[in-house]
Specification:
This protein is an alpha/beta fold. The chain has twelve helices and eleven strands. Strand 10, helix 11 and strand 11 form a beta-alpha-beta unit. Helix 2 runs parallel beside helix 6 and helix 7 packs parallel to helix 12.
Length: about 325
């Protein structure tokens, strides 16, 4: 999800440099609601890869998918992911293939598919890489402006429930358990924000996440559980938030795409490569362990850990609160000026 959202500024750059350009976007079916948010997208082609991986492949669905993919010849077929799976799909599409060279791709071998290649350093943020990729292939100067995600907030779907007037969106969710932040740390931050007059809105998806949310909510009447929503309606909530505090997940990138002031916590992952990009974005990185960032899906740390979250527990609640109040002060000062 984060990778998809970080593609938006590249699409905005291209739309501004080449008025009238249109994009069709091939996307995993579970994320098909993401491209809808960008006005430059003409058609969305979906691939139910995750469902196939879990339930097995339907050859009838594959035939239908390939027919849809090959229904049109494109002026350019650009692989923005540059891994083996995306390269294979690029191969099936009609049109000249564009992608990264062997030094730049995520997975070696993907470059063999592309007829036109670009060299873009991997030692930088993914969003910046995508902006450079689009500028290189569409032949316009790389803009030096701050990332513009192109989302029109007025076009976001309406909500059928009330939100607090002044609330902080707390994103305690993460698909990887090693990226979670200790519950006592969240409780500390929430208590402090409530004392400062803010209300809290928190999402949940699974039963485990719901149970954590209600443990953190306790008897606070100003801590609100957000009902399960689709991605565009989650964007509507985030667009109304005073600020967001969260983990390295897609929702944090969504907050950045909506210019919502945002504090994001990084442990095993690298803010340098996958950090949120945009206005009023603060990254807090774990420190003190030689294995940070390991970029692993499971933790191999063998030392002592109070909460079994070795790197994330090095980011203290006081650091988050200090960053938050400084961010709010800077925003308020600039609005007054």
């Amino acid at each position: 999800m984060g990778d998809l959202i970080q593609m938006f500024p590249a699409l905005t750059d291209a739309s501004q440099a080449l008025p009238g350009i249109q994009f069709d976007w091939l996307v995993e079916d579970s994320f098909k609601e993401i491209p809808v948010l960008h006005p430059g997208i003409n058609k969305i082609i979906t691939l139910p890869y995750r469902r196939w991986k879990k339930e097995g492949v339907s050859w009838q669905e594959i035939k239908k998918f390939l027919s849809q993919l090959r229904n049109q010849r494109y002026d350019m077929v650009i692989d923005a992911q540059s891994n083996l799976k995306s390269a294979l799909l690029t191969l099936f599409a009609k049109g000249k293939k564009y992608g990264l060279d062997k030094k730049s791709v995520r997975e070696y071998g993907a470059h063999l598919v592309y007829q036109k290649k670009a060299t873009i350093s991997r030692t930088q943020n993914h969003g910046d890489r995508m902006r450079q990729l689009m500028a290189a292939f569409l032949n316009y100067p790389m803009p030096q402006t701050i990332a513009n995600y192109g989302i029109v907030k007025e076009n976001l779907p309406a909500l059928d429930f009330e939100l607090p007037q002044r609330f902080i969106f707390i994103n305690h969710l993460c698909s990887s358990k090693m990226r979670l932040w200790p519950e006592p740390y969240w409780a500390h931050v929430i208590d402090d924000l409530l004392k400062s007059g803010y209300e809290i809105v928190m999402p949940w998806w699974t039963d485990e996440e719901k149970e954590r949310l209600y443990r953190l909510k306790k008897d606070h009447t100003k801590v609100h559980a957000m009902p399960p929503l689709n991605l565009p309606r989650k964007a509507s909530v985030l667009a109304r938030a005073t600020a967001a505090i969260g983990l390295d997940t897609g929702l944090s990138h969504m907050a950045a795409s909506l210019d919502t002031p945002n504090i994001c916590l990084y442990g095993a992952t690298s803010a340098e490569f996958t950090g949120t990009v945009g206005k009023n974005q603060i990254h807090l990185n774990a420190k003190g362990l030689s294995c940070i960032p390991c970029l692993r899906m499971s933790c191999h740390y063998q030392g002592e850990s109070q909460y079994n979250l070795p790197c994330m527990e090095t980011i203290k609640p006081e650091q988050v609160l200090q960053a938050f109040y400084k961010l709010m002060h800077n925003i308020n000062s600039s609005e007054i000026a």
